[in-house]
């Protein structure tokens, strides 16, 4: 019970096999119909739930339908339009700035490289990876959100803490064809079972190979803190 497999590679393989079986339809949960909407949704999702973002973008995407609409938007008005989103003032500024850069530098089209995307204000590697994967079918890396960060540490796959370092640690371990789906599987499992607070270890398909299992261990390896 609660014993990690002999190597990190074996651990990753077994974790993925079980999660693929548990969540066969796992995919991105943000709603969008084109690359621009995807970019906006992912920018808004930073430190905010996808459910909240989807609620806001339902009306946002009706009001702002082109990159020009965002570029010409009044920042204060846009901020009000996304008022329930975490850090809505900053994100409104990021969106208007990014839209103008997309028009000035990329002909009004959402760029398709990591370097170009991360030049946009408010767009880091995580956001760029999502846009590349789901907007351009380009998989350059692994999206490390809070779920991937938490589960990869709890499962003893990595000891790194910053998302960028976790991504670099995971990429050689995870088969490239699984880079995109790993994120969706970890998000699904993180929401359903391996929650940040009080995970349901007794009903977890990974419990017997999890070195953080509350049933056998005293420490949450994600935080390094003892279980409550």
Q: Could you explain the architecture of this structure?
A:
- This protein has 228 residues and is an all-alpha fold.
- It is built from 11 helices and 2 strands, in the order αααααααααααββ.
- A two-stranded antiparallel ribbon has the order 1-2.
- Strand 1 and strand 2 form a beta hairpin.
- It is elongated and about 60 Å long.
Short summary of the structure?
The protein has 228 residues and is an all-alpha fold. It has helices at residues 8-22, 35-45, 50-63, 67-71, 75-81, 88-106, 114-117, 125-135, 146-154, 163-170, 179-192, and strands at residues 219-220, 225-226.
List keywords for this structure.
mainly alpha, two-stranded antiparallel sheet, elongated
Strand order in the largest sheet: 1-2
Number of helices: 11
Summarize the main sheet.
2 strands, antiparallel
Low-confidence stretches: none
Cα shape: elongated
Q: What distance separates the N and C termini?
A: 20 Å
**Beta-strand level of the residues, as a percent range?**
under 5%
Mean pLDDT, all residues: 97
Structural class estimated from helices and strands: mainly alpha
- Number of beta strands: 2
The H-and-E topology, N to C, reads as: HHHHHHHHHHHEE
Helices, strands, pairings?
Blueprint: H1 8-22, H2 35-45, H3 50-63, H4 67-71, H5 75-81, H6 88-106, H7 114-117, H8 125-135, H9 146-154, H10 163-170, H11 179-192, E1 219-220, E2 225-226
Antiparallel strand pairs: 1-2
Helix pairs in contact: 2-3, 2-8, 5-6, 9-11
């Amino acid at each position: 019970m609660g014993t990690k497999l002999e190597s990190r590679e074996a651990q990753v393989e077994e974790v993925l096999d079980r999660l693929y079986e548990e969540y066969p339809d796992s995919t991105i949960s943000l709603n969008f119909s084109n690359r621009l909407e995807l970019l906006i949704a992912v920018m808004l999702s930073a430190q905010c739930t996808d459910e909240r973002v989807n609620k806001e973008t339902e009306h946002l995407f009706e009001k702002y339908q082109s990159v020009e609409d965002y570029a010409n938007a009044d920042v204060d008005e846009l901020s009000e339009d996304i008022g329930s989103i975490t850090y809505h003032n900053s994100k409104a500024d990021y969106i208007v700035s990014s839209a103008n850069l997309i028009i000035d530098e990329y002909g009004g089209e959402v760029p398709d490289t990591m370097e170009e995307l991360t030049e946009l204000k408010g767009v880091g590697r995580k956001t760029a990876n999502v846009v590349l994967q789901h907007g351009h079918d380009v998989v350059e890396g692994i999206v490390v959100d809070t779920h991937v960060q938490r589960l990869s540490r709890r499962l003893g796959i990595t000891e790194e803490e910053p998302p960028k370092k976790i991504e670099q640690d995971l990429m050689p371990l995870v088969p490239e064809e699984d880079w995109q789906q790993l994120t969706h599987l970890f998000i699904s499992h993180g929401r359903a079972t391996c929650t940040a607070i009080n995970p349901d270890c007794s009903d977890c398909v990974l419990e017997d190979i999890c070195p953080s299992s509350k049933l056998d261990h005293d420490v949450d390896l994600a935080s390094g803190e003892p279980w409550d």
